[in-house]
TrEMBL record:
HTH cro/C1-type domain ranges (all copies): 7-65
UniProt GO MF annotations: DNA binding
Record-linked Pfam families: HTH_3
Protein name: Helix-turn-helix domain-containing protein
Length: 178
């Protein structure tokens, strides 16, 4: 989720208008709502100092507004919080262990994420059972969704040879340029 979407999410969660938040940031009343709309729709990106001020007014961490990264534990946590907000990711405890699950009833994005995670789970199970090698598993993960064979998310990409053959055949058809 981009920073503009996060600003919009927290602003509406707090019940603030664009004008109110813009004025709280110190923008003139005349242009406060326009300025906030520019950040929310992504036509402008707030600099670090403005992001910090937004976070303070919205009572969130600046990392909650920024596109979260996973290069730090705090960034990872905010990434997970964003997944909760957007895709229905939930945290729960089962047999004394913490688990993450997707609430598929939270909406179509949650249902899609669930399907994608199921496809990942299938590949992980195949690796565990020895049906596929670690190399096959990594190939699937690192090129996802290209090699997803569940049929829902993968895209068919013809080989270069097949692509060249098709182009040559199309050129041979009457009325086509050669």
């Amino acid at each position: 989720m981009a920073i503009g979407e996060r600003i919009h999410f927290f602003r509406t969660l707090r019940g603030m208008t664009q004008k109110y938040l813009g004025m709280a940031l110190g923008f003139p009343e005349k242009s406060a709502d326009v300025r906030l709309a520019q950040y929310e729709n992504g036509s402008r990106t707030p600099k670090a100092d403005l992001t910090a001020a937004l976070a303070q007014i919205l009572e969130v961490s600046p990392q909650a507004l920024a596109v979260p990264d996973i290069d730090s534990y705090v960034g990872l946590m905010h990434t997970l919080f964003t997944l909760e907000d957007r895709y229905g990711l939930k945290i729960c405890e089962c047999d004394g262990e913490i688990h993450l699950r997707v609430d598929v009833f939270q909406g179509k994005d949650a249902a899609r994420l669930h399907e994608m995670l199921c496809a990942w789970g299938e590949q992980a199970a195949k690796l565990k059972s020895g049906e596929i090698s670690k190399e096959d598993y990594d190939r699937w993960r690192y090129r996802y969704p290209e090699f997803d064979t569940t049929g829902h998310w993968h895209k068919v990409i013809p080989s270069q040879g097949l692509s060249d053959l098709l182009v040559d055949e199309l050129k041979k058809q009457p009325g086509k340029e050669k």
